[in-house]
Design goal:
About 70% of the residues lie in helices and about 5% in strands. The chain contains four helices and two strands; from the N terminus they run βαβααα. The chain starts with a strand and ends with a helix. Strands 1-2 form a two-stranded antiparallel sheet. The chain is mainly α. It has one domain (about 20-130): Four Helix Bundle (Hemerythrin (Met), subunit A). Helix 1 packs antiparallel against helix 2 (about 40-65).
Length: about 140
């Protein structure tokens, strides 16, 4: 059985080309939730999923470091996202790679979807704050 999560049937997400750390976060989380799961090879899914979530965490930490001068609420949101992505990674790493089952894969993938959406919202807020800033 192969399971793939796809929340963007339009393909518009594929058009993101900038090197903005938030777009990297969104892209990495999208890639994590799209990793195909094969019941016969759960360790492969586990390896790919945790690699993508790690990419998202690294990018989010990079964004959070650059956002230190942002408004307090935006900084707080960055910290919350870092914590949540770190929690997803910890949950994924606590799983036994060869024993991942469909329910666990679904739960972790759903968390990746929720974090992807949160990162998108954060990117929109950050863009609005940047536009409203003096000189923005």
């Amino acid at each position: 059985m192969t399971v793939i999560f796809d929340t963007d049937p339009t393909g518009l997400d594929a058009q993101i080309t900038s090197h903005d750390p938030l777009e990297e976060v969104v892209g990495a989380l999208r890639a994590a939730r799209e990793v195909p799961f094969e019941a016969e090879r759960p360790a492969l899914w586990h390896k790919r999923f945790t690699a993508r979530v790690t990419d998202a965490l690294v990018a989010m930490r990079g964004h959070a470091t650059n956002a230190r001068t942002a408004a307090g609420s935006l900084r707080s949101e960055c910290s919350t996202l870092v914590t949540k992505i770190d929690g997803l990674l910890a949950s994924a790493l606590s799983a036994q790679p060869r024993q991942v089952q469909v329910p666990q894969m679904v739960e972790l993938s759903e968390q990746a979807v929720a974090l992807e959406l949160a990162a998108r919202d954060h990117a929109r807020v950050a863009a609005l704050c940047e536009e409203g800033a003096p000189g923005g």
